[in-house]
Specification:
The chain has 11 helices and no strands. It has about 230 residues and is mainly alpha-helical. Helix 1 packs across helix 11, helix 2 runs antiparallel to helix 8 and helix 5 (about 100-105) crosses helix 6. The structure holds a DNA duplex (13 and 12 nucleotides).
DNA sequence: AACCAGGACGTGA
DNA sequence: TCACGTCATGGT
């Protein structure tokens, strides 16, 4: 990577404006009230040592699946219900009935598809026996696409794996970092080449992209100078 | 009240 | 390969 890229400078700007994001949020550090979702206590800014247990690791994986094309608050409600029903473990997910599993994750949307995804991933997770999965292994699991695979490796397994989302691709284009629209693979290569390769850098980058997108949507005026 | 959220899969061309 | 339909809830 070049010493200082425009994209890296923009990330520093966002970091200064918004602060460290403390992703991935964990239920154990959040309130237990399902009606108060997405609260700051679930995050751990500046601390990149999470997950510290396999319980937290599996929770992150499930969150990554549940939030597919879904607002995080809806996914978090599902996580809270899974946990309170003792379903936030691979063995429990595989043992649960369809109706019980689907009821728990109902709020996250696509509940039939996502219940199958959680089961497919649970089987895969048990087979790992603590090993860190390669990207291709994750992609071979039904329901795990590029972004979810990268999210799982970056946040659940602490691998320096670049995560791209639709908004990141939009930023690269709108701010003129790339000439043409990139697809997922192209955006991933681009960001890898223009950002420092480290766990903290990659985690903070993706989280800041999402936070910035949320702020632009809520308060377009306030974030105008950072557009 | 349409539109969008921290996507991925199945299908047909 | 790739464009398009499908999956579904909840906030704005």
């Amino acid at each position: 990577m070049p010493r200082r890229t425009p994209l890296d400078a923009f990330v520093s700007l966002l970091l200064a404006a918004y602060g460290p994001q403390g992703w991935w949020p964990l239920l154990a550090h959040a309130g237990s009230n399902p009606t108060q979702t997405g609260q700051l206590t679930g995050y751990h800014p500046g601390d990149f040592t999470f997950p510290r247990t396999q319980v937290e690791q599996f929770e992150i994986c499930c969150g990554a699946i549940l939030t597919q094309n879904t607002a995080w608050t809806n996914a978090e409600r599902a996580l809270v219900l899974l946990a309170s029903n003792d379903l936030l473990a691979p063995e429990a997910i595989l043992a649960a009935t369809d109706s019980a599993l689907e009821a728990a994750i109902h709020s996250s949307g696509y509940f039939r598809a996502k219940s199958k995804k959680l089961r497919a991933f649970s089987e895969f997770y048990l087979r790992l026996r603590g090993r860190t999965p390669a990207r291709d292994e994750l992609l071979a699991v039904w329901g795990i696409g590029p972004e979810t695979a990268d999210t799982i490796r970056l946040y659940a397994f602490k691998e320096a794996e670049m995560v791209i989302d639709a908004y990141t691709l939009r930023v690269l284009l709108l701010r003129g970092y790339c000439r043409q629209p990139l697809d997922y693979a192209g955006g991933k290569v681009f960001c890898e080449r223009h950002l420092p390769r480290s766990l903290a850098s990659y985690q903070e980058f993706h989280a800041l992209m999402v936070e910035h997108s949320k702020r632009l949507r809520r308060r377009p005026k306030l974030a105008e100078d950072l557009r």
